[in-house]
Write a structure and sequence with these properties.
The complex is a heterodimer of chains A (359) and B (805). With 359 residues, chain A is α+β, with helices and mostly antiparallel strands. In chain A, 43% of the residues lie in helices and 18% in strands. Chain A is built from 13 helices and ten strands. In chain A, helix 3 (48-60) packs antiparallel against helix 4. The N and C termini of chain B lie far apart (87 Å). The chains are: A alpha+beta (359), B alpha+beta (805).
Chain lengths: 359, 805
């Protein structure tokens, strides 16, 4: 059955004819008049309300038709009803499609309108880089250790083969803690290295450990010098540990930091607690021909390292004939600056939220 | 330390090796090179000229008009103002386009109307001297048109060595020591140098008495017939290259010997050394000495003095005295070469702030065997310049020094193991011999003879020799070896795990920014907290006055950050995880691990909700933090011992576990402190602060984490408001409500707090959402009614009433 307006109109015409042939009551007359009015005025856009009325009224008022006409009227009216419902459903579908099309229209949307800002917190960049390194080293079986910022002279110097007359004590620009004469002499630790000997006394060799932490040097502040900064000490003690192992470990460290193979070189460096001692340079990760970071040399002086001095092993209660080891001291603050391109070390500890929220 | 390439070439053949090559070789095997620079680069731009004609300038009496042949085309017309210019002279010409020291660009110009195409130079204009008595008269034999640098052999490069990288190598503080390294690296011989003292006459030697063991060797030598003349060009140019200002031959040679052999020395005017001779002694407190720089130095008993009899004439190893210095009319000298106790020199030099080239070397512990060698070197150089110089008396060479030479056993096996390099004993021996060590077989190992110059400080044990081998072998030749071993997970680090969770929670859902602060607290903050009399760990030498104390608690570090950050943002949320230190008499200080939090927001509005305070919010943050850590239950109570930063009445203590251990405090800021910190006016703030002890959290037992079955029956929510005396704490009320529920209370949520006339004087109303449910049935109206009746009775018992439901 088709449901277009023309077929509905045709059906209505048949009903009207049936009504005309029947004896007219008041009810059938009024019905007929309404239908005639409808047929006269209706256009192709039939409204569901009119159709329903046109179709439902005869059904409810079947008894006004003469008996002989009831069958035809009923059938026709039912057909109209079906047609009307179908047309209605179609119309609803179309209306939904129109509504969806309107909803899908992108008019008025500006993707660049800034969304409301979601406030958030942040981890300090030093924390972030420290964690990366901690994760890297713990994944290789290294232990993470902690040590006091206020350290004894013994651990900071003596146990590290830095005798009282050693000029390194001057060059390290030490903050000395006021103590009563005769009391344990204390310093603000000048490096994380004192934890080397503390670790040796606590752990049984073989072991591998890193020690991230804050260190202090009595230096004047400028864009690249801070009196308080962060270091990460590394220490491996084992049997037959050699310079070759140190080189491999440092290359692994740099791969972890920069995410790719970085060429390194070791050159002599002097630190009383290692022998031999080295400065480790990394090929500048930011250039190939020299830039401001590497001071045009293509090498970045990255960390001091070396084979643990036998006197240090002895201070830690370890027999240097049986065990050897290597140690390194990574400048975490400097690494953080390299990583994020921070140009002034003083930002790191200044506590300006505009700085902190960038990370 | 500056090293001259040309100077090095006096000691080792450098043909085919550039200054840049040397810098690289030294960097990889010996010491850090900071840079290489050309010495007076313009010496290679100026040329040797010949004055072929000289006339008077037509318009100026003092100017000459010269025609100067510079070996190219027609002679140049040059106007010259020097009185000594004359035809026939060989001179130095800077032609147009040349740049002389001081960024002085030579251009074609007109001088008093006459064209001048360059400049005839004096030594001073070339940066080679201070004399300015006219133009430089060059030797007749120089080729016209030659570049001056090449013609006079003045081309040089300056290699800057990082002093810090050679603090352990006293032997490298002179050119010969560096040359010896290069000889070893480049496999070339170190050129011989005659360091024997020429024969002396039989006159009376200088008397020397050493009264302090801070001087192990003292050599004094009479030198007669020397004159303080101008130094020759070779000497001046080498000294200039390494940054020394030439003075006169005597001073310059003294410096030259120090920079050549690394051994400082001193020349006295012999007229100032009396018949009592030289006495080396410690100073007496209160004694003074005017040093060469004309500063009156106050001495202490630890300083070492050189005295003429009893009268101080020099500060040993640091600087001579003004009174005994060599002057223009000095003809008789006393040469001092000595070995002094390094720490004595270092301490005096540091105390007086008087660092000299001599002190820098003495504090490295010099080899006492260098003493006679340096004396001989100086005398021989002096006699080469002034053949009339005579040694009229034998040298006095006294003291109780010991040679630092020694023999160390070296196992090839140990070298191979420590370096991880496959070097046989022959290769090891080769390297050590190149470095000047004596090597002999010693059973399975090697007996290595260390010369005194390497033995004072640097080389004392086997491992030191391993370094010698490794650095010449080159660390770059060592293959990398991965660490191997049985991998066991490192022991669980509970504190680090806890700290990470804390940091993540606070930076994450709590939206706080992590700060890391200095451990020092400014005195100004201490004063604002009125903690001046509380003992702190304190440094004796702070970076600036008033920054000597180390924080006891991390919270104080956040205080000074509030005001500046509040000026930039309405809300400031900061936390720091760190350590605080409390001094303990005669022992290491107690270390505390803490989390500090600070929340600052604009001052509270009058109609703000009861829980819209920074304090309430921060309590919520801290409670959530502790709860998230999965520890035992915690509870709030009034803080009885409020920290100095806390408002005395608005401070809450958080306690945890069965033992009620104190975890920390959360409090509104102390109102006086807020004003002191500048949190007033437009940045007047509602500030809450918190301290959470990581140590206490670590001590707390973890909460058993178990699943609880989901409720099967719906719950019922009842709202009750109780008007009670203000003394009744919320904790009491919550306990009462729990009691009334008889096990049915599933949740208690405070949704309003108010007081006022309607509630009555001294009372407040607490309104709660109470969630009731039973595990086995749906609650009905009768249950709720019974609950409310009990609440009503409890309220009366607590001294108040149930206001509504």
């Amino acid at each position: 059955m088709t449901h277009d307006a023309a077929s509905v109109r045709a059906l209505l015409g048949e009903i009207l004819a049936a009504l005309a042939s029947a004896s007219e009551s008041d009810e059938t007359r009024s019905l007929r008049e309404r239908l005639e009015r409808f047929v006269a005025h209706s256009d192709d856009a039939l409204t569901s309300a009119v159709l329903l009325e046109a179709s439902a009224a005869p059904l409810g008022a079947m008894r006004v038709f003469p008996k002989e006409a009831r069958g035809l009227v009923g059938a026709k009216a039912n057909a109209i009803k079906q047609a009307a419902l179908a047309a209605l459903a179609e119309e609803e579908q179309a209306a939904l499609a129109r509504a969806l099309a309107a909803e899908r229209s992108h008019a008025g949307f500006d993707a660049t309108l800034p969304p409301p800002r979601q406030a958030c917190g942040s981890l300090h960049p030093i924390t972030q880089v420290t964690r990366e390194l901690e994760d890297l080293f713990t994944s290789m079986g290294w232990t993470i250790l902690d040590g006091p910022e206020v350290e004894t002279e013994h651990f900071n110097f003596d146990a590290l083969n830095i005798s009282p007359d050693h000029p390194a004590r001057d060059t390290m620009d030490t903050f000395w803690v006021r103590t009563a004469p005769g009391d344990t002499r204390l310093v603000m630790r000048t490096h994380t290295s004192p934890v080397q000997v503390r670790a040796m006394r606590r752990l049984q060799p073989p072991f591998r450990a890193i020690v991230p932490g804050k260190v202090f040097r009595n230096e004047a502040l400028d864009a690249s010098h801070e009196h308080t900064f962060h270091q990460m000490e590394g220490l491996v003690v084992g049997q037959h540990v050699s310079v070759g192992h140190l080189i491999a470990a440092m290359k692994t460290l740099l791969r972890g930091i920069f995410g790719r193979e970085i060429e390194i070189r070791l050159r002599p460096g002097y630190f009383p607690f290692v022998e031999p001692g080295f400065e480790l340079d990394a090929r500048c990760p930011f250039c190939t021909e020299g830039c401001s970071v590497c001071k045009r040399s293509t090498w970045i002086e990255l960390l001091p390292c070396g084979m643990v001095h036998p006197n240090v092993l002895k201070a830690g209660g370890i027999d240097p004939e049986q065990w050897t080891g290597f140690a390194f001291g990574l400048g975490l603050s400097r690494l953080v600056m390299l990583r994020f391109g921070i140009d002034d070390v003083r930002h790191l500890l200044a506590g300006d939220v505009r700085f902190l929220e960038q990370f | 330390m500056k090293i001259s390439y040309r100077w090095l070439a006096r000691h080792v053949d450098l043909s085919g090796t550039s200054a840049v090559d040397i810098a690289r070789e030294l960097t990889l095997s010996t010491a850090e090179v900071e840079g290489v620079e050309r010495f007076l680069p313009h010496l290679c731009d100026v040329t040797v000229g010949h004055v072929v004609q000289r006339e008077k300038h037509p318009d100026a009496d003092k100017l000459s008009l010269c025609r100067v042949d510079v070996g190219q085309g027609e002679p140049l017309q040059i106007v010259c103002g020097a009185p000594n210019v004359r035809a026939g002279l060989k001179v130095v010409v800077a032609t147009a386009g040349t740049t002389l020291p001081g960024d002085f660009k030579i251009k074609k110009s007109k001088i008093r109307g006459v064209e001048s195409n360059g400049m005839i130079c004096s030594e001073r204009e070339l940066g080679l001297g201070v004399e300015h008595d006219g133009i430089w008269e060059l030797g007749e034999n120089l080729t016209v048109g030659a570049r001056l640098g090449a013609a006079l052999g003045l081309e040089d490069w300056v290699i800057e060595i990082d002093n810090k990288s050679v603090t352990h190598r006293p032997d490298l503080w002179g050119h010969r020591g560096i040359a010896a390294e290069l000889a070893a690296i480049l496999r070339r011989p170190l050129l011989p140098l005659d360091l024997t003292l020429p024969s002396t006459g039989g006159g009376a030697s200088v008397g020397v008495r050493i009264e302090s063991d801070a001087c192990s060797r003292y050599l004094a030598l009479r030198v007669e017939g020397a004159r303080a003349t101008r130094s020759p060009l070779w000497l001046k140019s080498l000294l200039l290259a390494v940054g020394q200002r030439p003075i006169d031959l005597l001073v310059d040679l003294s410096n030259f010997v120090m920079l050549d052999l690394g051994q400082p020395n001193h020349l006295f005017d012999a007229r100032r050394i009396g018949p009592q001779g030289i006495v080396v002694r410690k100073a007496r407190a209160g004694e003074t000495l005017k040093t060469l720089d004309e500063v009156e130095r106050k001495l202490e008993a630890s300083d070492l003095l050189i005295c003429n009899g009893d009268e101080p004439v020099a500060l040993a190893g640091i600087m001579g005295g003004e009174g005994s210095k060599v002057t223009d009319d000095t003809a008789q000298l006393v040469l001092e070469v000595a070995a002094f106790h390094a720490p004595t020199v270092r301490r005096t030099s540091a105390r007086l702030g008087l660092r000299t080239d001599a002190s820098a070397r003495f504090e490295k512990t010099l080899d006492p065997e260098l003493v006679p060698l340096a004396a001989a070197h100086l005398v021989r150089l002096l006699q080469a310049e002034q053949p009339a110089v005579k040694l009229t008396a034998p040298a006095t060479d006294v003291g109780q020094w010991t040679s630092a030479a020694k023999t160390i056993r070296l196992r090839g096996e140990r070298v191979r193991m420590l370096l991880g390099a496959d070097l046989d004993d022959a290769a090891i021996t080769d390297i050590l011999v190149r470095l000047g060590f004596g090597v002999a077989k010693d059973g399975a190992g090697l007996a290595v003879r260390v010369p005194s110059i390497r033995g004072t400080k640097d080389i004392s044990i086997e491992q030191d020799l391993v370094e010698e081998v490794g650095r010449i072998y080159r660390y770059g030749n060592i293959p990398e070896i991965p660490l191997a071993g049985i991998l066991v997970p490192p022991p669980r680090d509970e504190r680090r795990r806890l700290v990470r969770r804390i940091e993540d929670r606070l930076a994450g859902s709590a939206r706080f920014h992590q700060q890391i602060s200095y451990s020092f607290v400014p005195d100004s903050t201490i004063e604002k907290l009125a903690l001046q009399s509380t003992p702190h760990v304190e440094v004796a030498n702070p970076i600036t006055e008033g920054a000597s104390r180390v924080r006891r608690s991390v919270v104080v570090s956040l205080l000074p950050l509030l005001e500046p950050n509040r000026r930039r943002a309405a809300e400031v949320r900061l936390f720091e995880v760190g350590k605080g230190y409390e001094p303990v008499s005669a022992a290491e200080p107690t270390e505390r691990h803490e989390v500090a939090l600070a929340l600052a927001r604009p001052a509270r509005k009058a109609n703000a909700r009861f829980d819209d305070t920074s304090l309430a919010l921060l309590q919520g943050v801290v409670e959530d933090l502790v709860r998230s850590l999965g520890l035992e239950a915690c509870s709030w109570s009034r803080c009885e011992a409020a920290p100095s930063w806390a408002h005395p009445g608005r401070a809450a203590a958080l306690r945890i576990g069965a033992r009620d251990a104190l975890v920390g405090e959360v409090a509104a800021i102390e109102p006086g402190l807020a004003r002191e910190l500048g949190l007033a006016g437009e940045v007047e703030s509602d500030v809450a602060l918190a301290r959470v002890s990581i140590d206490a959290l670590l001590d707390a037992a973890p909460r058993a984490r178990r699943y609880s079955p989901l409720p099967q029956f719906p719950s019922t929510r009842v709202d009750v408001a109780l008007a009670l005396p203000v003394e009744r704490s919320a904790a009491e009320v919550m306990a009462a409500l729990e009691r009334c529920g008889k096990g049915l209370v599933r949740g208690l949520e405070l949704f309003d707090v108010f007081s006022g006339e309607r509630i009555g004087e001294g009372r407040r109303s607490l309104a709660w959402h109470v969630t009731l449910s039973a595990p086995d049935r749906t609650l009905n109206e009768a249950d709720v009614k019974k609950f409310l009746e009990r609440v009503e009775r409890e309220a009366v018992q607590l001294g108040g009433e149930l206001r509504g439901e």
